[in-house]
Amino acid sequence: MKEIKSIVRVFAAAVIPAVALSACSDSDEPGAPGASGAGSDGKYVFATTINGSNATSYDLVTGTSLDEGTISTINNGLLNDGATQWVFYKNYLYALTYNQGNNGTTRSFVLGADGEMKQRDIEYSISRFSSYGAYDNDIITMSTGDGPAEFADSHGYLPKTLLVTYLNVVNETKTTNNTASGKYSMENFLGNGEYVTLAGAEQSGSKLYCGVVPMGLSQYGVADNNGNWIRPGFEHLVHDTAGGSGSGAYKAGELVGTQYPNDCWVAIYDNDDMTNPTIAHTDRISSPCGRYRSQYYQTVWTADNGDIYVFSSSYSKTMTDKGQQTNLPAGVCRIPAGSTKFDDYYCDIEAQTPGGNRSFMRCWPAGSDCFLMVMYDRALTESGAVATDLAIFDASDKKLTYVTGLPENVSSIGKTVYAANGNVYIPINVTDEHPSIYAINTSTARAVKGVTIEANDITGFGYLTPVK
Question: What is the model's pTM?
Answer without folding.
Answer: 0.91
